[in-house]
Amino acid sequence: MSRAPFERRLLSVIANEPLGAYRVLRVADPDGPQPQPGQFAMLAAEQRWGGGEEQRPFLPRALSVARAVAGESHFLLEDVGPGTGRLCELREGESLWALGPLGRGFTAPPPGRRAILVGGGVGIAPLAILQDSLSLPSTVLLGFRDAGRAAGAGLLERASVATDDGSVGHAGLVTELLAAELERDAGAVVYACGPAGMLEGVRALCEGLEVPAELALEAGMACGFGACYGCVVPRRGGGYLRVCVDGPVIDAAELDHVDAHAGAPE
Predict the structure, then answer these.
(1) Would strands 72-77 and 56-57 be described as parallel, antiparallel, or unpaired?
(2) Pair 129, 67: CB distance under 8 Å
(3) Which domains, ranges and CATH numbers included, belong to the chain?
(4) Mind listing the pLDDT tens digit for each residue in 108-124?
(5) Looking at 164-238, which runs of residues are DSSP E strands?
(6) pTM of the full predicted structure?
(7) Which residue among 1, 116, 125, 180 has the highest number of C-beta atoms inside a 10 angstrom radius?
């Protein structure tokens, strides 16, 4: 598994491209460690990384690596606050600080077992690099709030889409698409990332059918190295897991439930 050095790297922005309601931030990273699908990086703009009268610094933002190709790292952004808003403003030639890849990623499915990738909203990001890494075609199921966000499905190939408002694809929840897939093939392996409610639905469905599942959790992080304990989630049987070092990808069997704070923004 790729492990980041204990220092951040100053990387140059190649492009910041719109993708429906999202943006794809592409940065040059020719010398960085190759990330494993599901790992993340802590990102901060080099300039104007702060707010308020005294420009108090923001904490770095933990973002899943969406793609790593030809010396570039790609990240999927949604403007949901001042930190992500600043990253969405970055343009070609500007710089950002990156620390990563961090955390534990997805594991490959056993030979002969189909991979089902289930994503929701901006949480689809780590499924793109996962799809790139798989040797066999995967089934991709993605859920979004509306048509503007559903355009993000273009990040992956051959995706079936569900929208809450019915404007694109299946009208309803992406877990409904997953239930239909597992009814046809309960021998699959499920990989998921998205809002906490979606992840809990995936976890419960897979537990009931005894289908193995790996969930990429998201939580507010201050360090990325497990020192601050700001991103803990309860472990089945007692104790806690730190999303940044014990995850972000966690075997669903280790969880009784997915905490409300442990998912991507909706």
Answers:
(1) unpaired
(2) yes
(3) 9-102 (2.40.30.10), 115-254 (3.40.50.80)
(4) 999 989 999 999 999 99
(5) 170-171, 189-193, 213-216, 232-234
(6) 0.94
(7) 125
